[in-house]
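Now for a specimen:

…
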Amino acid sequence: MKMMLAENIRAFRKDRSLTQEQLSEALGVTAGAVYKWEAKLSIPELELIIQMADFFDTSVDVLLGYEVKDNRLEATVKRLQEYRRSKDWEGLAEAEKALKKYPHSFQIVNESAALYRAFGFDSGDKALFHRALELLEQSRLLLSQNEDPQISEQTIYGRIAETYLGLGETDKAIELWKTHNADGQYSHEIGNVLAQSGHATEAQRFLSEALLKHVSELVTTINGYANVYFNCGDHVSCQAILDWGTRLLLGLREADKPNYFDRICAAFLAALAGSQFLSGQIDAARDTLVKAKELAAFFDAAPSYDESDIRFVDPIEGASAHDDLGATAMDGVCNAVGQFENKEFTALWEFITEQEGFHE
């Protein structure tokens, strides 16, 4: 609850063109008392508040000017989130109030932990990290209440590990990440901390896993963006995301050796050409299709599904690459062209592929 009594006494007094002395005479108090009320140095007794409300022809509620917060659980959770986003340190006191009111609520405990972690990282205050650890452990025990699919025991352990890292307890952080590294979720964290700790060889293994995982996820994300923009008729954005994606993948080339991402890149180029063609950039589409054809041919001449042929990546035991593009990289380009279902664009592709001895 927030009161505006001091501000309202001053506002009502000035609205009636009264000095502090004149108001004090009307209320039977000293001018110094009125000064202290308006300066927030003291609060008038209840009887005087009622008397003032009557004098100013208003209600006690209005004179107090209080704002009652919505303290229902959902509203409290949102308020804690806003404290964290706005970096408002008053949120810590609010979190402790909420924890007293809802001590067994997963949402409250989880958001309070997030608040303490955030301010811990902002300030480096170890006391905040220790409080965050207490709350994270408590939230793990309340996990059965959780309805957010992005939160699991694995992600909570990941946050606990990050908090240990904030405390400088690197070994504990790495041990937790390794124990709960399902699907390589924390390989990037482990590799980064190991590298900083001087364990380069072990770090490289985890970083290689992380790079392959995140690039593969990024390929899917780029493809999704391209479809969204294309379906919305935003060819500028469609071409921009595909162009960025192809440059990213080509940056993983190890010297002049083909690697698995070349076949993905060839399909991206075909999709880029399709967007260019349908937006009237015929010459650009032709040039891009030529690049797609040449890249696909380069890969198919010596196909590689070995992750060690990818720049920065060390061999990973049991790793394998799979996609639904087609049996060959050239099949992938053909399939990408066919998805546009445009006879003129398909004819352009057929013309390019039928040119014997063609060179850009």
About this structure: The radius of gyration is 32 Å. The CA atoms of residues 128 and 195 lie 27 Å apart. The chain has 18 helices and no strands.
